[in-house]
Structure formats: structure tokens, C-alpha cells
Amino acid sequence: MSITRGSFYHHFSNRDELLQGILSNWRARATEDVILHLRNAQTSAEQQLIRLLELPYHGHAAQEAAAVELGIRAWARADRQARQAIDEVDKHRLSYIEGLLMQMQMGETEARDRAFLIYSYQLGLSLLSTEGTSNSRQDRSARMANILLNTDVHHAPPLKTGAPSSV
């Protein structure tokens, strides 16, 4: 990268500020923007969860988002600041999912447990290959939604283009 030291310090006063900027940007794009987009779709809690479960199958953008997520999680294993950001993001995402489940009339304990299971599933998908055809991935997504939400789930209506692709 051909960036001069002067150029760097024009944008960031030090290395920690740069790293904090990276984490803040990731937090906003991978969590807050996704949640805002799902909420603004004005769909039911169940439909928001279905869309959330389908996000890992949204092509190249989802693969890139997963790679960034994995990189930040690896970084957090050795860095306190990154670990704090991960902890905050995990708590925010889990709270959002739990809230949707409670809107679906689940009790608090069941909603908390299912939120953890759904979130763990989402994170696990970022570690696994998304092989198979688009139809087979959609079918798997619907089956997993049925299991995780304990409902008879059909595919959610498509999101508008330009939707964020991670949670």
C-alpha cells in the first residue's frame, strides 16, 4: 500500500484509532445496518427471522461478509479491543433475535435459548462451504428455519436489492 505516514495521520491520530475505526465500521455494517434493514421491511417477526436465516446464502456479498467476520473473530482472540467489539456485537445480535422470538409469543427462557441456537447456526454457516445449487441451499434454509423456529416456514419474500448481507 502506498500511503505516506502523513496521509495516515491526516485520517487517524494513531494505530489504535485506526483499529477502532475498523471495528466501528464493521459493527455498523454487519449488525446495525442489517437489523435496521430487516426492521424497515415492515414484516412480521417470523419473516424477519426467516430473512435473517437466509442471509448467508446471498452470494458473493455474504461470502465476503463472512470472511470479514471470521477475520475479526480471529483478531479478537489476541486483542482486548476487538474482543470487546465482538462481545458487544454478539450481545446486540442475540438481543435482536430474542426480541423477535418473544414477539412470536415465545417465553423468555425459550426465546433466549432459541436465539442462541439460531445465532450459533448463523456463525457456523460462515465456517462451512455454501456448496450446492441455489435451490438446494434455499430448501436447506427453509428446513433449518422450520427446525430453529419450530414453525412451518416458507421462503420469505425477497429483500430489496442492496440489502446488507451479514448479521
Quick one: how many beta strands? 0
CATH topology: Tetracycline Repressor, domain 2
pLDDT < 50 stretches: none
Task: Report the helical percentage.
Answer: over 70%
Shape: globular
The main sheet comes to:
none
Mean pLDDT: 85
Radius of gyration: 17 Å
Q: How many structural units, i.e. domains?
A: 1
Content-based structural category: mainly alpha
Overview of this structure, please?
The structure is a single chain. The protein has 167 residues and is mostly helical. It has one domain (14-149): Tetracycline Repressor, domain 2, CATH 1.10.357. It has 7 helices and no strands. The protein is globular and about 55 Å long.
Lay out the secondary structure.
Layout lengths: L4 H7 L3 H26 L4 H10 L4 H18 L3 H24 L4 H20 L6 H16 L18
Helix pairs in contact: 2-5, 3-5, 3-7, 4-5, 5-6
Descriptors for this entry?
167 residues; mainly alpha; Tetracycline Repressor, domain 2; 7 helices; 72% helix
Quick take:
The chain contains seven helices and no strands. It has about 170 residues and is mostly helical. It has one domain: Tetracycline Repressor, domain 2, CATH 1.10.357.
